[in-house]
Each structure stands twice: as structure tokens, then as C-alpha cells.
Write a structure and sequence with these properties.
By secondary structure, the protein is of the alpha+beta class. It has two domains: 241 residues, Rossmann fold, CATH 3.40.50; 237 residues, paralog of FGE (formylglycine-generating enzyme) (Alpha-Beta Complex).
């Protein structure tokens, strides 16, 4: 799933989309039976409508209507569109996920109903399939921009589960990416969104409205807009609710910046800055991926004490990060050309797992980890000092400045815009698709790039081997060291990402570990960044 911050790099290369007119269908449903009423949605619909009108949308508003009326208005709304328009669909109310009549997992938006609705089948019959919304917009507005905002992830009362069919899930599920669609969820998959009986608006909609009222935000790309709305919300509520945006590369903003003005060519062509390439390949064939400048919420309030507090960090400048962890083959070239001997080779070896405990074995070093490895496996049994020596050699060889990432750079890149536990979300059952870790590794490293990448196109940011950073470790939480490039070889350094030999929790984006710069393990490697490609 694409998370907050992902598409800021895609803006650099995506064509500008020119829109004709902007239309919005805004729905708020709070009138449900039997104690399931919601106090915020009608206010949400009213206030979102006003905010959208103020940024140029023509708004149709519906409140406390049933499924039949919602479906009819969706059809009317879609029919009114001209191909190339901007269409925004907003829903505040109850929602859930489950299988539709085609046996596909989808999301349902619940229309108003009375006390006669008592079972899950009856509730499904009173609910609108989000796929119907997407299909209706796509058929009429294939060449335009379609924005779907769903503040609809509330708890489902137990009385609707009496049939025991397992139809319901609290919260919504990811529907994936659709061409020319931006789909924004008020919270992570299968999480429950926060209402707020003491406030006029729900927790998420309050920040959505604030974003629409912020001139600076509405002039940003649409995905940046939703990114910032999510970041502001997390600053108040922490990880209780973390919004999600899913979108392909789209360049569009909610204000007037979608219009491209064509001016006569000047006599002397203006020298415009060239966009940075999305990926680069250095003279050794190593691929690096562009990580754009931006802000993110670093840390976790639900993890270890050293992950606190969650705090906003700004990455001022773009940088490039290794698409993969440095491999055995790449490290071998360094050894062959420089004559360098690692600390494991010069000393008493490297730590490895014996099947029952971690032990240091003199025969373990980067060439032999206690198990078979290939040239495309991540190099391991390298200390922080060894990793720094590699970056210094590579910098001298290429004339570019290579180094280890700071801890903040690492987490920013790993998250790829995500606010979840892992860069794909909070569903631990998906981790095996993205990482080699204790449950699936077979007790060894694996070739880099075999699992799915994160949103920036980086591989193995979770699992395979722990990765050294250049930041000093602070055990009592963050103090700013996470932003600093440290050259102090006497202080413990932070490692990130987990490894083949550790639990799923260690692969979380916010998880931290620390070692002395001289420690080596057959589960520890590194990844590069370069500032001036």
C-alpha cells in the first residue's frame, strides 16, 4: 500500500494533469438505529462541503440517506462528469470490510437504516460497495482525477454477527491502486477510526478540513496534501489512528495549480533545473534510489522506550540510498582492490547462531558466516568500522561522497511515507512477502531483492541483515542524535531493520538496536547513501 510521503519523488517526473471542472459528492450518515448513531458525520458533511466550495468545487451534499438514495446519487454524480474533470467522493459514517457478491474483498459504506436491520446479511443489503463508487467514476471520468476520501472505519456491534458467517471485519481494507485515482483512508487497514463526541467533527475529518483551509497545503501535490494531513493528525493522536493514501503517480493539487499556462518562448531560453533521476547506477554497477526531501513522524509510542517520543523530523535535502544492501560481491571488490582486512579477520571472529545460543567463532567473517552464501547475498560479519572503511574507499574511487545513513534518514526511507508498524502497514501476516526474518529465513541470509520493495523501491529494509547507521545510539529516547552524522568510533551506533535471525517486531520501521562499533555478527550488514551523485 502506498503510504504518506511516497509520491513526492514521483512529482518530479509525472506530467501535469489539466482539469476542466471540479465536482464533489459529500455524504454524511449518522442516523443509525439502536445505539449505533454517530454524532460527527452530518457535521463532517456540512463542513467539508463548505471547505470544498471555497477551493472551487461544485458540491452535492447528502446526509442521513439510505443505500438506495446513495447509489442513485452516485450514478447521477458520475453521469454529470465530463471526461477530464476532477471528481471527489467523501463519505463519513459507518463502514466495514468483507466479501461482496463476487466473493471479492471490498469495503462497504453503511447507509441510514432502522431497527429492522438486525443481521449481517441485512446490514450488507443496506450498504454501498466502494467498488461501485470506483467503477462509476472510472467509467465516466477515465481521463480525469478521481479522489475518494473514506472516514468510515468504526466498530461493528456484535448483534450484527449473529449469523456467524464471518462476513465482517472492523475497519476497511486496502483496495490497491487504480489509474487516475487517489484513495484516502482515515486509518490503516482493519483499524478503527476515532470519532469524537465532544468535537463537531471526527478526528480525521477535522484535519482534512484544516488542510482544505490551508492555502499552502492546497497548492501542494494531492498526495503531499494528504501526507501532511496525516502527519498533523498523528502529531495529536499518535499511532491510535494513522491515515493512508493509495495512488499511482499523479500531479494535481486542490487549488489552481493544476492549470498549465503556455507562454511564448523567451528570446533566451530559461535555464530550468533538471529533475533528479529516480534511480542512478554508479561506476561499480550499484543501483541507488532517489529519496525526496520531506517530513515524517519518527519513532513509536507503542514500542520500546528508546523509540519514544514520536516526533516530526524534516529531511531538508533529497539523497540517494542503495536499492539493496551491500552485497558479498561488492564487498569482495573492495577487499581485492584495497587489501583491507576486516576486524573479524584480524581479531577473534564474529558472532553467529549455533542453534541454541549466540557464540563468537573465530572462523566466522564476511567470507564464511557459518552457512552458504552467494555473491548476491548481503555482506555480513562487518563491524561499523568496516562499513565506514568501505564508504571511504568507494568515495575515493568514484569521487562522490558515500556514507552510512543517519538514523533519521534510514527510518524516513524505510517508511516510504508509511505511518504503520511496517512499511506495508500493520498486518503482520504480510511480512513474509517483504522480509526474510526469523519465521521464514531458514536461519540464513538470502539474495538481496527477492522480496517486495517498499514504496521508494528499496528492498530488504525489513529483515535479511541489520543495517548500520552513522548515528550514535541513545537508550533513553531521542535527543537529536538521530539526525547527526557521527564519526565517533567510541560510542555505540544504531542499527535498523531486523534480520534473518530476529522476530517480526524487530523488523518494524521504528525498531532500534545498538552495538559498539567493533561488534560483528553474521546478521549485521549495511546500506549506502550518497548526497552528490
Amino acid at each position: 500500500m502506498i503510504r504518506y510521503g511516497l509520491l513526492s519523488l514521483l512529482i518530479l517526473t509525472s506530467p501535469i494533469v489539466q482539469a476542466v471542472d471540479k465536482y464533489a459528492l459529500v455524504i454524511g450518515i449518522g442516523n443509525y438505529s439502536d445505539g449505533w448513531q454517530l454524532t460527527n458525520p452530518v457535521n463532517d458533511a456540512e463542513d467539508v462541503s463548505v471547505a470544498l466550495k471555497n477551493v472551487g468545487f461544485r458540491v452535492t451534499k447528502l446526509v442521513d440517506v439510505d443505500k438506495r438514495q446513495i447509489n442513485q446519487e452516485i450514478q447521477n454524480f458520475a453521469s454529470s462528469l465530463q471526461n477530464g474533470d476532477v471528481a471527489l467522493f467523501f463519505f463519513s459514517g459507518h463502514g466495514f470490510s468483507g466479501e461482496n457478491i463476487d466473493r471479492r474483498m471490498t469495503n462497504f459504506l453503511v447507509g441510514s437504516f432502522d431497527e429492522s436491520v438486525r443481521t449481517e446479511t441485512a446490514l450488507q443489503e443496506k450498504s454501498v460497495d466502494v467498488q461501485f463508487v470506483i467503477r462509476s467514476l472510472r467509467e465516466r471520468n477515465r481521463g480525469g482525477i478521481n479522489i475518494v476520501v473514506l472516514d468510515a472505519c468504526r466498530n461493528i456491534p456484535e448483534r450484527f454477527r449473529r449469523e456467524q458467517k464471518g462476513f465482517f471485519n472492523d475497519g476497511l481494507v486496502s483496495l490497491g491502486k487504480y489509474e487516475r485515482f487517489v484513495i484516502n483512508y482515515a486509518t490503516q487497514p482493519l483499524q478503527v477510526a476515532l470519532g469524537n463526541d465532544k468535537s463537531r467533527n471526527s478526528a480525521y475529518t477535522k484535519y482534512f478540513i484544516r488542510g482544505l483551509q490551508n492555502n499552502a497545503l492546497i497548492n501542494k501535490n494531492i498526495t503531499e496534501f494528504f501526507n501532511e494531513v496525516g502527519l498533523q493528525m498523528v502529531e495529536e493522536f499518535g499511532e491510535k489512528q494513522t491515515p493512508v493514501v493509495e495512488a499511482p503517480p499523479i500531479r494535481f493539487c486542490l487549488a489552481n495549480c493544476e492549470t498549465l499556462t503556455i507562454s511564448p518562448a523567451p528570446a533566451i531560453p530559461e535555464q530550468l533545473p533538471q529533475p533528479l533521476p529516480k534511480t542512478i547506477t554508479n561506476s561499480l554497477g550499484m543501483e541507488l534510489v532517489l529519496i525526496p526531501a520531506g517530513s515524517f513522524m519518527m519513532g513509536s509510542n507503542d514500542g520500546s522506550p528508546d523509540e519514544k517520543p514520536v516526533h516530526k523530523v524534516k529531511i531538508d535535502k533529497p539523497f540517494y540510498m542503495g536499492k539493496y544492501e551491500v552485497t558479498v560481491g561488492e564487498f569482495r571488490t573492495f577487499i581485492a582492490e584495497s587489501g583491507y582486512k576486516t576486524e573479524a579477520e584480524k581479531g577473534d571472529g564474529c558472532y553467529g547462531w549455533t542453534g541454541s545460543s549466540w557464540e563468537k567463532k573465530k572462523e566466522y567473517n564476511w567470507k564464511w558466516l557459518g552457512f552458504k552464501q552467494e555473491e548476491n547475498h548481503p555482506v555480513a560479519c562487518v563491524s561499523w568500522n568496516d562499513a565506514v572503511a568501505y564508504t571511504e574507499w568507494l568515495s575515493q574511487k568514484t569521487g562522490k561522497t558515500y556514507r552510512l545513513p543517519t538514523e533519521a534518514e534510514w527510518e524516513y526511507a524505510a517508511r516510504g511515507g508509511s505511518l504503520g508498524k511496517w512499511y506495508f502497514g500493520d498486518d503482520e501476516s504480510q511480512l513474509e512477502n517483504y522480509a526474510w526474518y526469523g519465521d521464514n529465513s531458514g536461519n540464513q541470509t538470502h539474495a538481496v531483492g527477492q522480496k517486495r520493495s517498499n514504496q521508494y523501491g528499496l528492498y530488504d529494509m525489513a529483515g535479511n541483515v541489520w543495517e548500520w547507521t552513522c548515528s550514535d545510539y541513545t537508550s533513553n529516547g531521542y535527543d537529536g542524535s538521530e539526525l547527526v552524522l557521527s564519526k565517533n568510533s567510541n560510542k555505540d551506533k544504531t542499527l535498523r531493520g531486523g534480520s534473518w535471525s530476529y522476530y517480526s517486531d524487530n523488523a518494524r520501521s521504528a525498531n532500534r538496536a545498538d552495538y559498539a562499533p567493533t561488534i560483528k555478527g553474521n546478521y549485521v550488514g549495511f546500506r549506502l547513501v550518497v548526497i552528490s551523485p
